[in-house]
Amino acid sequence: MMTTTxxxxxxxxxxxxxxxxxxxxxYLSGNGKIVKGSDRLFANKENDYIxxxxxxxxxxxxxxxxxxxxxxxxxxxxxxxIEDTNIEIIKAKSMNIPIIIRAQLLADICESKRTIAIAGxxxxxxxxxxxxxxxxxxxxSPSLITGAGMVSLQREGKIGNAYCGESxxxxxxxxxxxxxxxxxxxxxxxxxxIDKDHKELDELYEIFQTFQxxxxxxxxxxxxxxxxxxxxxxxxxxxxxxxxxEGVNFKQDGFEIQFDVQGVHCTIPxxxxxxxxxxxxxxxxxNLLGVSVKQCANALQSYEGIYRRHQxxxxxxxxxxxxxxxxNPAKIAASIKACQPxxxxxxxxxxxxxxxxxxxxRKELVEEIxxxxxxQDEIWMSxxxxxxxxxxxxxxxxxxxxxxxxxxxxxxxxxxxIQLFEDLVPTLKDNTVLLLMGARDPGLEKFAKExxxxxxxxxxx
Length: 461
Hints:
This protein is of the alpha/beta class. It folds into three domains: 5-104, Rossmann fold; 113-300, Mur-like, catalytic domain (UDP-N-acetylmuramoyl-L-alanine:D-glutamate ligase), CATH 3.40.1190; 311-457, Mur ligase, C-terminal domain (Protein-Tyrosine Phosphatase, Chain A). The chain is built from 15 helices and 20 strands. It has helices at 19-30, 48-56, 87-94, 102-111, 124-137, 151-154, 201-214, 226-229, 273-288, 293-300, 329-339, 355-372, 397-406, 420-423, 444-457; strands spanning 10-14, 34-38, 59-62, 75-78, 99-101, 114-119, 143-145, 162-163, 169-173, 188-191, 218-221, 248-252, 257-261, 264-268, 311-316, 319-324, 345-351, 378-381, 411-413, 432-438. Strand 13 and strand 14 (264-268) form a beta hairpin. Helix 5 (124-137) packs across helix 9, helix 5 (124-137) packs across helix 10 (293-300) and helix 12 runs parallel beside helix 13. The longest helix has 18 residues, at 355-372. The chain is globular, with a radius of gyration of 22 Å. The model has no long low-confidence stretch (mean pLDDT 91).
């Protein structure tokens, strides 16, 4: 079904550089629409690569000053992070141009396709990427709108978080953090996990219940997750312990996991038991599309991963550096546990984002880190990343560090992350994995590469 919005031709995205916004912009551009966009990131020369990537996808980029909005613009697309005081919002209103929330546009796109929506507080990006890879390898050419770049698509010169396929199927990463998940009415809905993140559990329950009610045909849940399990209506199509799609004999060897499903042996070039769960979720969905467990296992052998999800930057002199997007308590715990088998000692660094979110998860974050770290492991933190806007700055990353120290954890605070180059990196020893974690900050990719560059350049006697 074609909605009124999708019948428009000329779109302008405010905040086009964001992962969620850029994916939809690419999808529209790939389907013949005229797409333009702005971002305050474009004012910084260091972010020229973001502009270049978008422009390669036929998305014309502008500074966030209103210059890209004109009489031809038929719709302004924004995320919930864009405030009414934004100069481009003001201009759009003065010109009577419709302003559409990103989630509503994505909901409209979903209604025009046979949509599979992947939801949950953890694992969405990876599961979406794994499922895309499985379907693509098995000649089902789905479209893709997700939040993280797939390495396989990036190798083709793409941003990697969007793809215009040939079939009627569309895979989307359905986000609950701003409550917009309730707008989607997919043919197949997938619920991976429910943990406190951005919202209290009671509010999350309501959001996921509505998501389940809106799902048109099949709703699949992680039966191994205590809270997600409550949403099960048909255990025969669920995944996890006690279901048809249960993984057994899990083993991790370096950067490779192995397990068995229905007697089929699976080997995937990634780390962490949570990635077995993600793969099982994909198998449950793919089965509904006629793809067998054996076909899924064959495809996953060549899965290349996604940007900043346990991304191996390099290993030298017994020191391994890994970059990861983990940012909520459950994800941080899973990331730490996945990396521990790689080396005898783990040194983790984390940069929280947002004063409100950090304040909200403080208790759970401390609990998860305490329960995850081994006695020999360390956690380092730098100051909270501030992306702008209105915020009450009444909490510091050092408050988290002090909480951890009080519980006996080897925790350290370095306000400016550049200090790590002097305070931490030169002290790393053989048989250590350095795990870098954080989200939202566009400078994290460059920072991680700089850290690896120093590790790679250190001369050991």
